[in-house]
């Protein structure tokens, strides 16, 4: 666990350092617009400084204090369970732009039902068709929210 | 009395058909979310927050911001009740605040064979706790709001500092991780245009300019993160199952049990209310406090852990009272009492409302409609729970392979609907992954969410104070109230340090408080 804790803390410190650099004009002699005002960069600069301080101490504690022996995941099964969710989710998000909302959602739901749930084909097909249909009725008809269409639109109506 | 007149007006608003319909939808969704172990009340509210924007802008006939807040608050009330069912029947807590019910709820259901009594006792205590808290809310909120109207920037800044101090000092395993997350929230809140000078800050680093949009993305962080955490745990653990149908005899038995414990339930409800009003905390910590109090003052301590009804009623009354109370600082001071109310407060900003004492004068219908809906929402939830426990328990059987992608799809629609932007969807997924990783590394997300919501107001009051005091830091202590709040904040911040010192002296491990919900 130690390397992951230290790595996470280091990443947070790095992000904070970038934000501090971006707000470096806080160091200019007259940053504010009125007497007493500290200027627009003061707040983000010091917020980032506190982020860096908190993460640096957390990282130092992870280095110097006893850490649990087990890793980040309980085992290969846990990694696989998360990967099975993350990879299709990323592909779903990427495919959204081309396949449009309804086709992408249908494929995503159907894939999950068939691959993760091991359902029979007609149940997977039902999940793939009924979910986008229910969402269409709820959001497009009910809430009048137009969701993105596929590259095949208007050849096919979604 | 003016309060009663306002409350009747609130009922007239809350009882409009569209509001009742969305209240029903909200509590039902909340119950479902509460029953599902992979999704918490905060995430449920966060996922539906973007959809509430569509409701608040009046796209549905008769709906407005009051309808939207009734929907979101309804989810919270439903989730407060729903987590109970799985704790008692399956030995799996549906929500963090129902973990405590594993101690006595499940033993009463399984070992003593009384699942109906365990559930009904829990629902009854929740209802009474929420009802007492709502009464206190009704009669004290306006008074607090009127007082708050006289607050200057120094007092307001001190209130924010005290909120942040309680998050860092009382709520997390590592105060430094909590501090880092809190400051991250403040930093992210600063992205965009400076409200005083109008200049740009950090925009090229993040690539977005819309503050409200970013708020949603951070709030959604907890939703996707919970799904991933749940996915990791699927298949781990053994699920005990007890079937239950609630009969009239269960209700009578629970009422008799309540009569015997009425002092405990009432006192725990009041304590839960006072605890919930403290910014930054909520039902989870309150539930453990309620259990501790019930056990501490019981004559039959030896029965706790074996199905003692006081071990169910005590924490349930406290948790629900704290849940209701967490909305009090939101509407009176503009400070969320819990992460869930922080998410609801983010909604208020986007619907064009300014949370805080002015709500009572400028948006009377909204505030009193919300208060009236709390009474109605809890009554509705109580009745649904009594009638539909077998149905709600069946939700646990809805397959993971359907529920999980469906939650992702709803999250994606929510983020897309804000600005019809694919970039928002990308941000949602990205923040979900980051949130999941931070959770695994034990970085608490509650301080981040609260700081993100309060960040703008904190900076505004800080700079107004500095300008008013011409840069003199003594201005922050210029009034007795501001000095008192600042003093309390320092005391709360020192608590973890004192705990470490005491633990070192005694050579015992430092106790860890549960994460706020």
Q: How would you characterize this protein structure?
A:
The complex is a heterodimer of chains A (158) and B (517). Chain A has four helices and no strands. Chain A has 158 residues and is mainly alpha-helical. Chain A folds into two domains: 2-64; 76-142, no CATH class. In chain A, α1 (2-22) runs antiparallel to α2 (42-64) and α3 (76-116) crosses α4. The model of chain A has no long low-confidence stretch (mean pLDDT 86). Residues 235-239 and 512-516 of chain B have low confidence and may be disordered. Chain B has a two-stranded antiparallel ribbon. Chain B is globular, with a radius of gyration of 22 Å. Chain B has one domain. Chain B is mostly helical. In chain B, α4 packs across α5 and α6 (115-148) packs across α12 (262-277). The interface between A and B is large, with 68 and 72 residues.
Shape of chain A: flat
Tally of discrete structural domains of chain A = 2
Low-confidence segments of chain B: 235-239, 512-516
Helix percentage of chain A: 55-70%
What's the total number of strands of chain A? Answer: 0
- Quaternary structure annotation: heterodimer
Task: Determine the number of helices of chain B (DSSP H or I, runs of at least 4 residues).
Answer: 22
Q: What's the overall geometry of chain B?
A: globular
Number of domains of chain B: 1
Largest beta sheet of chain B: what is the strand line-up?
Answer: 1-2
Q: Please tell me how large the radius of gyration of chain A is.
A: 25 Å
Strand content of chain A: under 5%
Which key phrases capture this entry?
heterodimer; A: mainly alpha; 2 domains; 4 helices; flat; B: 517 residues; two-stranded antiparallel ribbon; 22 helices
Summarize it.
The complex is a heterodimer of chains A (158) and B (517). Chain A has 158 residues and is mostly helical. Chain A is built from 4 helices and no strands.
């Amino acid at each position: 666990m130690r390397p992951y804790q230290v790595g996470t803390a280091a990443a947070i410190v790095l992000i904070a350092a970038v934000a501090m650099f971006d707000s470096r004009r806080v160091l200019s002699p007259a940053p504010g617009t009125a007497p007493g005002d500290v200027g627009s960069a003061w707040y983000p600069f010091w917020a980032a400084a506190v982020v860096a301080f908190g993460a640096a101490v957390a990282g130092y504690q992870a280095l110097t204090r006893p850490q649990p022996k087990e890793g980040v995941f309980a085992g290969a099964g846990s990694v696989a369970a998360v990967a099975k969710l993350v990879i299709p989710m990323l592909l779903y998000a990427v495919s959204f732009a081309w396949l449009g909302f309804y086709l992408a959602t249908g494929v995503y739901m159907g894939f999950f039902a068939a691959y993760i749930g091991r359902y029979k084909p007609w149940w997977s097909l039902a999940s793939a068709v009924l979910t986008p249909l229910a969402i269409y009725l709820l959001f497009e008809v009910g809430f009048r929210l137009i969701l993105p269409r596929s590259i095949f639109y208007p050849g096919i109506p979604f | 009395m003016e309060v009663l007149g306002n409350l009747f007006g609130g009922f007239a608003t809350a009882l409009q058909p569209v509001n009742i319909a969305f209240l029903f939808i909200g509590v039902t969704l909340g119950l479902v979310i509460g029953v599902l172990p992979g999704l918490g009340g905060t995430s449920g509210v966060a996922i539906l927050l973007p959809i509430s924007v569509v409701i608040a802008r009046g796209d549905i006939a008769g709906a407005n911001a009051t309808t939207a807040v009734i929907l979101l608050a309804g989810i919270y009330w439903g989730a407060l009740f729903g987590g109970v069912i799985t704790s008692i029947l399956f030995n799996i807590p549906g929500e963090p605040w129902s973990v405590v019910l594993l101690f006595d709820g499940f033993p009463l259901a399984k070992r003593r064979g009384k699942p109906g009594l365990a559930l009904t006792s829990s629902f009854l205590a929740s209802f009474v706790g929420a009802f007492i808290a709502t009464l206190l809310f009704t009669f004290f909120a306006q008074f607090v709001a009127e007082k708050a109207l006289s607050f200057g920037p120094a007092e307001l800044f001190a209130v924010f500092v005290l909120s942040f101090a309680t998050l860092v000092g009382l709520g997390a395993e590592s105060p430094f991780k909590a501090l880092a997350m809190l400051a991250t929230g403040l930093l992210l809140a600063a992205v965009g245009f400076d409200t005083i000078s109008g200049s740009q800050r950090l925009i090229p680093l993040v690539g977005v300019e819309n503050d409200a949009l970013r708020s949603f993305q951070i709030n959604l962080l907890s939703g996707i993160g919970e799904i991933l955490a749940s996915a990791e745990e699927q298949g781990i653990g053994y699920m005990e199952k007890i079937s239950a149908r609630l009969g009239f005899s269960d209700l009578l038995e629970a009422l008799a049990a309540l009569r015997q414990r009425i002092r405990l339930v009432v006192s725990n409800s009041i304590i839960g209310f006072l605890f919930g009003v403290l910014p930054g905390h909520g039902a989870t910590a309150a539930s453990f406090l309620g259990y501790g109090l019930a056990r501490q003052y019981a004559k039959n301590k030896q029965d706790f852990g074996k199905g003692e009804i006081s071990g169910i009623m005590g924490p349930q009354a406290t948790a629900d009272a704290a849940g209701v109370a967490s909305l009090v600082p939101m509407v009176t001071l503009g400070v969320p009492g819990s992460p869930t109310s922080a998410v609801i407060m983010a909604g208020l900003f986007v619907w064009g409302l300014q949370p805080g004492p002015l709500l009572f004068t400028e948006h009377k219908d909204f505030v009193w409609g919300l208060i009236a809906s709390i009474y109605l929402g809890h009554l509705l939830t109580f009745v649904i729970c009594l009638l539909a426990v077998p149905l709600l328990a069946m939700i646990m059987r809805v397959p993971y392979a359907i529920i999980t992608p469906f939650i992702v799809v709803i999250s994606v629609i929510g983020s897309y609907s804000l600005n019809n932007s694919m970039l928002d969807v990308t941000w949602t997924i990205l923040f979900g992954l980051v949130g999941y990783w931070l959770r695994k590394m034990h970085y608490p997300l509650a301080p981040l969410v609260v700081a993100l919501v309060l960040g703008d107001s904190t900076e505004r009051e800080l700079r107004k104070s500095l300008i008013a005091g011409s840069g003199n830091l003594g201005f922050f202590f210029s009034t007795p109230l501001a000095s008192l709040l600042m003093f309390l904040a320092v005391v709360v911040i020192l608590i973890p340090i004192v705990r470490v010192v005491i633990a070192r002296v005694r050579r015992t491990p430092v106790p860890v408080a549960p994460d706020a919900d």
